[in-house]
Amino acid sequence: MTIQKMALIGTGVMGMGIAQIAAQAGLEVRLFDAKAGAAELGLSKLKATLEKLQQKGKITEQQFAETLARFTVLENIEEVAGVDLVVEAIIENIEIKQRLFTQLEGIVATETIFASNTSSLSVTAIASILKHPERVAGFHFFNPVPLMKIVEVIAGLVTEERVVQDLLELAKRMGHFGVRTKDTPGFIVNHAGRAYSTEALKVLGEGVTSISEIDRILREGAGFRMGPLELFDLTALDVSHPVMESIFNQYYQEDRYRPHPLTRQMLAGKKVGRKVGEGFYKYVDGKKINELPRQAVPAVTNFQPIWIQADQEQDAQILRDYLNEQQFTLDTAEHPHSESLILLATYGEDTTTAALRFGVDATRSVNIDMLTDFSKHRTLMPSIVTDKSYIDQAHAIFAKNDHGVSVIAESIGFVSQRVLAMVINLACDIAQQQIAAASDIDQAVKLGLGYPQGPISWGDLLGSQRILLILERIYANTGDQRYRPSPWLSRRARLNLPLLHIATI
């Protein structure tokens, strides 16, 4: 069925964003809100938005007029009769959504599709009390809807295939990437996003480094648009913490999704983020006022020769090339001389463990993260006994030419290693669960979360063997189930197969 007429129930920001792209795609859109005057207000705000688009040359005067002409504000919900599709964007409460759809069953035709914009509720559960649950699907957009070109189409256990296909086709007409997903907690995007946020909180909770440094490492080193802690402040903990708890509990306390007590404490203390002036950071007029600057580079005049040991030869060569270019002296002996700075480049372990594994002096050892782009931000990890003079030397060496350097406390792997390995592993596990196709997971997460790469293709870019090594070592070191490698990742890495281009088994 080609959908031509749509009713939008709930005219808040999200609802009107959906209404806007529907009208711009040529649909007749009927607006209804149970709150008196809300639909009129929503349409008024949308008109102002469209006027700005016209002024900027994004739409023509004719497109402006035609889009507005497709809207009708309804006084009574009974006026939705005759539409092909009803999309609800109301409060995230299953009983209220069920009451709405039950009421609508007595108004619209049996072939009318019911679509819920739910972000966290089970579509199967929403539909369960209806006479025709097969007509119900999830149609989950992201704010701001016109800019976030992704919509999840969620099939409940009894949703008809024609409903899914009609919504996927509609998403395409709206200019969005429609991705089909199973009815599981968090669907794709909110499910996959748990790794970035919860692992960053775990790093912070372990005292590995500061709030500012975690965000800086992941922005400058890994390429994320926003660090995870500043992102929490933007989305607000009164929104994001309940989602973390909900997904954790819906998966019966699966360790991969484990929240952190810190955000529960901050929520209780009403430090929820930017909108109240304080979260992980403090804000004045929406701007951070207490972000720490880059770590000061020590003034070092005397450098010892540098002895290198790495898990991968390509990393060792990058380091040798850099040090030669900067005219530092290399110690090329089989074993480090007694005064040499010992530079290690390892994956998924702390510096103490690496020094013991290589049989070198931990008091002179500093580990460097080589997972992300070496030409960008650099992260160093001394052991708990590394002499400060050697830490300072390493810091000064890698801060040449104004490069950002973060020196962190010992950790079970570097900040970027831990976070990226968890992001990639969770996306692979979503593929293992067959919640969606691997390519769809990759595209949906990139569009929905604004990551610089889709998580599965990112695993290919960084090397699935390296990601697997990080996870295996952290898991062996901690015994924490959250770090266990996904079988989907493990099989492909061991067979040296690309992650993205192999069909799910």
What is the structure about, briefly put?
With 505 residues, the chain is of the alpha/beta class. It is 43% helix and 13% strand.
List its salient traits:
single chain, 505 residues, alpha/beta, eight-stranded mixed β-sheet, five-stranded mixed β-sheet, 43% helix, elongated
How would you characterize this protein structure?
This protein is of the alpha/beta class and 505 residues long. Helix content is 43%, strand content 13%. The protein contains 20 helices and 15 strands. The strands form 3 sheets. Strands 3-2-1-4-5-6-7-8 form an 8-stranded mixed β-sheet. It has a 5-stranded mixed β-sheet with strand order 11-12-13-14-15, with helices on both faces. A two-stranded antiparallel ribbon has the order 9-10. α8 packs antiparallel against α16 and α16 crosses α19. The longest helix is centred in the N-terminal third of the chain and has 18 residues. The protein is elongated, with a radius of gyration of 26 Å.
